């Protein structure tokens, strides 16, 4: 009986270890595909064209009642810390991608930025779809999100159910690390990770 218990325990342990290894390997190999979307100014922005900086990628929708605005606020504070070190814009930029491109037009995203006091300095891009190609752009956004295993869906009431991670990617858009969104977003932890990857 004891032997059977040990064998079962070992099988469970190996199964868990295998599952963890699968997710670690999957994340480590994740790369954002090169895609062209439109930013808060209505200009085309090619994700993946800049190979000189790290990128902190956030997925949001502006009608989100809690976790998205909380994350953006914390990223805004992180931006100030990075600016003090002379790193923001030089070594790292922020990318915020709307998962609700139908409602989150460039004008709406620009207003969202202003609400958080985020300066439009060209180093924090807020991306969405273009009106004329909105369906195609929505598919591009889904592809980008899927590449990082960010899951989301609209149950029909406009309040999206979505994953709760932000992502640090390298100069070639390859996954480095992920961090919790909302209240669990630890600004200091993200800051330390960024410094570690820059140095």
Structure summarized in a few sentences:
The protein is built from 5 helices and 9 strands, in the order αβββαβαβαββββα.
**Gap between N and C termini:** 55 Å
Strand order of the largest sheet: 5-4-3-8-9
- Seen as an oligomer or otherwise, the chain set is single chain
Task: Give the averaged pLDDT, no decimals.
Answer: 88
Domain Thioredoxin: 26-199
Family: Belongs to the SCO1/2 family.
InterPro entries: SCO1/SenC, Thioredoxin-like_sf, Thioredoxin_domain
Protein name: Protein SCO1/2
What does this molecule look like?
The chain is an alpha/beta fold and 199 residues long. The protein has five helices and nine strands. The strands form three sheets. It has a five-stranded mixed β-sheet with strand order 5-4-3-8-9. The chain has a two-stranded antiparallel sheet with strand order 1-2. It is globular and about 45 Å long. The protein starts with a helix and ends with a helix.
Task: Give the key terms.
globular, two-stranded antiparallel sheet, 41% helix, five-stranded mixed beta sheet, 5 helices, alpha/beta, 199 residues
Topology:
Blueprint: H1 2-28, E1 35-38, E2 44-47, E3 54-60, H2 67-84, E4 92-98, H3 106-115, E5 124-127, H4 134-147, E6 152-153, E7 161-162, E8 165-169, E9 175-180, H5 187-198
Parallel strand pairs: 3-4, 4-5
Antiparallel strand pairs: 1-2, 3-8, 6-7, 8-9
């Amino acid at each position: 009986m004891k032997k059977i218990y040990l064998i079962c325990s070992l099988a469970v342990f190996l199964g868990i270890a295998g599952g963890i290894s699968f997710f670690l390997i999957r994340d480590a190999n994740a790369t954002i595909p090169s895609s062209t979307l439109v930013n808060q100014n209505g200009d085309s922005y090619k994700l993946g064209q800049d190979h000189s900086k790290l990128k902190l990628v956030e997925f949001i929708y502006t009608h989100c009642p809690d976790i998205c605005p909380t994350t953006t606020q914390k990223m805004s504070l992180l931006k100030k810390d990075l600016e003090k070190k002379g790193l923001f814009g030089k070594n790292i930029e922020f990318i915020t991608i709307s998962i609700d491109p139908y409602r989150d037009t460039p004008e709406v995203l620009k207003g969202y930025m202003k609400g958080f006091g985020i300066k439009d300095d060209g180093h924090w891009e807020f991306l969405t779809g273009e009106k004329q190609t909105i369906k195609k752009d929505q598919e591009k956004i889904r592809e980008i999100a899927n590449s990082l295993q960010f899951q989301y869906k609209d149950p029909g009431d406009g309040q999206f159910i979505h994953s709760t991670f932000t992502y640090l990617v390298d100069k070639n858009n390859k996954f480095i690390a992920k961090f919790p969104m909302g209240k669990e977003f630890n600004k200091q932890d993200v800051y330390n990770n960024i410094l570690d990857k820059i140095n």
